[in-house]
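Chapter review: from sequence to fold.
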Amino acid sequence: MAQYVVQLRFDLAETDRRMDVRPAHRDYLTELKAAGKLVAAGPFADQTGALLVYDVADETELREILAKDPYTPANVYEIATLAEWQPLFPLS
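The token string follows.
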């Protein structure tokens, strides 16, 4: 398993659409957390984006997870950063 950090940048012109989709997005994240695929997630205080940490087999699995996120077909974000992470002090 590998941990990946994903930083999303929200399309601020699509805030209303993102708010409409957010309940489904958060339900999806809850499922990922229960399955052990999501380590941590949350929006930035200024609501310009979010940071998510995943525990997955590889980048291919991560991209499959991102493709299934309700935010993806709604086209309300772009990926600012996607990188494998080697934490010195793990979150859990």
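Two observations follow directly from the output. The mean pLDDT is 96. DSSP finds three helices and four strands in the chain.
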